[in-house]
Amino acid sequence: MRVASLRPEHHDCVRQIAKAAEQDLDLDAEVRRPWARLHVAVEPGGGVPVAFSLIWAVADEFHVINVATHPAHRRKGAASALLAQLLADAKAHTARLVLLEVRRTNRAAIKLYRRHGFSIIGVRRGYYADTGEDALEMLLALDPETGQPLPGQDEVALELG
User: Is 133 in the active site?
Assistant: First the structure.
């Protein structure tokens, strides 16, 4: 999977991915934000994005706003490649923390984030306006000198089955 910074020719594909993944995204607003970082994942031999990530970089923290993969291209490594790029960017910018919220029922995403070193640190009750579903807050702390992930521990129990 190849990861690249978002370019204008990717905009329509990213909007289609967001719609297919049932994600709200105001791409025009995000592109204008100086703290927003947008990347796309493209399958080998392909030129069309199949996934995207939106990160806000503020001070020494990165906040994952959105990671979405087109449903027809899931489980092929796109989200993992985007997270690897995020961690490389966080290291390059000496970020101290990477934070995100994920739907409690999104087991695949929770497992993915855990594989990349994230821990569950809290629950935001009724966080998602569309369903009233809870969000799990996840955190990855980075060593300020090396940029390497630091070991974390869940502060909230969750059965992943």
Answer: no
Cα 138 versus chain centre, distance: 11
Domains and CATH numbers, the chain: 2-141 (3.40.630.30)
Q: Alpha-carbon distance 9 to 61, whole Å?
A: 29
- Per the CB < 8 A criterion, the answer to whether 4 and 37 are in contact is no
Q: State yes or no: is 113 an active-site residue.
A: yes
pTM: 0.92
Residue in the structure block whose two tokens are 């809290």: 122
DSSP SS3 for 98: strand
Catalytic residue among 9, 61, 101, 128: 101
Instruction: Pick out the chain residues at pLDDT < 70.
Output: 159-161
